[in-house]
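Field guide to reading this record: the first block holds the primary sequence, the second block holds the structure written as discrete tokens, and the final block holds curator observations. Each block starts with its own label. This record concerns Defense protein l(2)34Fc, catalogued under organism Nephila pilipes.

BLOCK 1 — SEQUENCE
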Amino acid sequence: MRKQMRKNKPLQQNKLHLVMVTPLIMKMSCLFLTVTCVIVGICAAYPTGAPQETCNTFSANHTGHLPQRSKPNYELIASPSNVQPGGTLTVTLQGVGGETFKGFFIQGQNSAGKPIGRFSRQSDAQTRDCSGADDSITHVNANDKTQVTLKWEAPASYSGKVVFRAVCVKTYELFWNNIVSNSITVA
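BLOCK 2 — STRUCTURE
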């Protein structure tokens, strides 16, 4: 009988050890999972394009970070500067001196600041419907880019000035909200 008790005693100690260790392992696992999710969320941000809410905020909306106030190392160029109603032009967002960026959101806007026209769908960018079909465009991945060239079509029934505005994201912490192009004339 004593032999049997001795054999059971280590087993009982192991059970006690498991009972004490299991909550610790669970807490550590939960902590690890939480930290991993936070890090992945911060690093990933919006790797497959700006969310629909960007239509209203026109900001990167990265929690805990404000847009940069410094002059951006990026420029937004619309070419040519004159286009007929229904005509197409090129909009280029590029880093000055090879500066890279990971994400962007661009709109053509009339003099009242309302989205106007439509962007062509392409493999390196995807459109968003803010006020109308395809009136805004964003990135499809978080790869470093030095330039993105897009096609924009003027509305067939519009005549007037248009500027393009961009949100440009270098990193989760570094982004600029109001990069403005040269003015173009639709006539």
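BLOCK 3 — OBSERVATIONS
Helices lie at 2-44, 54-57.
The two ends are 103 Å apart (CA to CA).
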